[in-house]
Amino acid sequence: MAEISPLHSIKVNKKKCIGCVACMKACPTKAIRIRNQKAKIIYQRCIDCGECLRVCPYNAIVPITTKPSAVDIFKYKIALPSPVLYSQFGHEIMPNEILMVLKEMGFDQVYDEASVCEMINLAIEEYLDENKSPRPIISSTCPVVVRLIQRLFPSLCKHIIPIEPPREIAAKNLRQEISKEKNIPEQEIGIIHITPCSAKMVSINHPETMEKSHLDGALSIREIYNKVMMKLKKEKRPLMLQTQTRISGIGIGWSIPGGEIRGLKYSNSVSVSGLYDTITILEDVESGKLKDIEYLECLICPDGCLGGPLTVENRFIAKSNILRLIRTFGGKKRVDVNFVKKLYRDNFFSFEHGVKPKPFAPLDKNRSKAIKKMKLKEKIIEKLPGIDCGVCGAPDCRTLAEDIVRGDAQLKDCIYLTTKKYKRKENYGKKKN
Amino acid sequence: MRSKTVFQQEFKIKGGDFVNAGESSCKIRNILKEIGIDADIVRRLAIIAYEAEMNVVLYARHGAMYLFVYPDKILLKIKDMGQGIENIDLAMRPGYSTATEEIREMGFGAGMGLPNIKKNADVFKITSKVGKGTALEIIINLNGKNG
Ligand SMILES: Nc1ncnc2c1ncn2[C@@H]1O[C@H](COP(=O)(O)OP(=O)(O)OP(=O)(O)O)[C@@H](O)[C@H]1O
Ligand code: SF4
Ligand SMILES: [Mg+2]
Hints:
The complex is a heterodimer of chains A (about 425) and B (about 150).
Chain A: E1 10-12, H1 22-26, E2 32-35, E3 38-41, H2 51-55, E4 61-63, H3 68-72, E5 76-81, H4 95-104, E6 109-110, H5 114-130, E7 137-138, H6 143-152, H7 166-182, E8 189-195, H8 199-205, E9 217-220, H9 221-234, H10 249-252, H11 259-262, E10 270-273, H12 275-286, E11 295-299, H13 315-329, H14 337-345, H15 367-383, H16 397-406, H17 415-419
Parallel strand pairs in A: 5-6, 5-8, 7-11, 8-9, 10-11
Antiparallel strand pairs in A: 1-4, 2-3
Helix pairs in contact in A: 5-7, 5-14, 15-16
Chain B: E1 7-14, H1 23-35, H2 39-59, E2 60-69, E3 73-82, H3 88-92, H4 101-105, H5 113-120, E4 123-129, E5 133-141
Antiparallel strand pairs in B: 1-2, 2-3, 3-5, 4-5
Helix pairs in contact in B: 1-2, 2-5
The structure holds adenosine-5'-triphosphate, iron/sulfur cluster and magnesium ion.
């Protein structure tokens, strides 16, 4: 991509931010502090889940996606929308109408990702059949889950299935095919994902499992929504024209949690969606509690990608729309099993390399010092009031204590300690985590 | 190899409390991660702490877990007031369990807890008195780096 390639997909608009504590409180990895009355993201701790973006009352958290001007650089532009897009415009609009509108908006070609989902389903099954590493095997689809595991559950990196998600495989396949078919050099083809979250931007710019992503950028559903809606409203497209891509009902089902496991023959598979439920289940995996589960699909957003932070439609309505589409297109398998098996054996779906653990920095690199700092932290926690008000600029008292031992804050940042008019809550520290 | 540098913390466990079961082992994991203990060692301790905690929840009235982090090792002690174990050799055997049908229905009672603890520990000691309680002592050595 010609434009800046940020390591993260979220930034703070300082003009709009008033320094309230909403985002800081919502952040699951405690990656936000308030400094000088503005939110500050500690990028080393950010996993791009988009929680801050959801809760900000002032629209001061901005997702970073590809600029439309950066798309124009490419000679041949292909849109590769997430099947979630099909759920956003009401139940009367069919996928092909949406794909056609995208084409009218300047893409040379549009492609339905759903058929690739079906192939990945088969590839997952092949992997589960022949690989007997510790269970459960965890899905690689949601980039936030991958990052969460790298950061918070590094020992589980080995559990992530070494198979690329549909968007990457679809792009890989398309680039080879189009380049051959139209005789265009591969680098002149721009494949743009239409995404429900900005986290994909990070997996495109800084992929964790390969040298370079097969995608060239991502536009959010939110930013193209109005334009698509207007075009859809303006003229009805004749149904006859809607045959140019084959739409797969199974593939569309991938946008609903459970879509990945529904087709698997392993019925002891589990699907989890939502940030806190995902963290809880990964904690259980880490304790060795869930060894009997074969495959674990985790999606960070509530109701999976349908609840992505950059979608427009209410996720429950969106789900109803998707269910209707699944019924329309049916559950008929459309891909050739033997063909997929061959691709699988040729490693067409495989990661280039495994996901590497990237745990948060310890209190100190030196273990003895880290132990001392941990003791100090517990002592500081005892001094703090334990009401987690956030005025100090840290999300809760524990985190302020941690910041103090790391040298990033001071005890006097706590207004309760300076006013001396507080009583420490008796049961502080007994709450969860 | 005693050292003055040690982080220690106590975690209370209540017998029969399935709602909060697993919380102590979760806290222990978080402490170890913050200190910067290797992911694979955290994993081993996570399994040990969880299995030991569950045994207290299942077979004792109450108990506690004591975590000691030294620069070169981690020591975990689990003590409980409970029914105790009559035949330790038997209890250590993979697959041996006295869990009731109800407990099995909850997904416990495969008889793999103690063997798993032993497998993941560098040093493992168990003592028990019938009618009084059980004590486990587990040590995991940390490799020399960052000592
Ligand atoms: N703390 C304890 N107090 C009393 N008895 C115990 C205790 N820990 C284990 N036991 C006895 O030893 C047996 C074997 O324990 P172990 O943890 O290996 O298996 P389990 O708890 O029965 O099943 P699993 O751990 O696989 O769910 C138990 O069934 C129980 O009779
Ligand atoms: S669940 Fe889907 S929309 Fe949400 S972060 Fe993951 S990939 Fe993006
Ligand atoms: Mg047990």
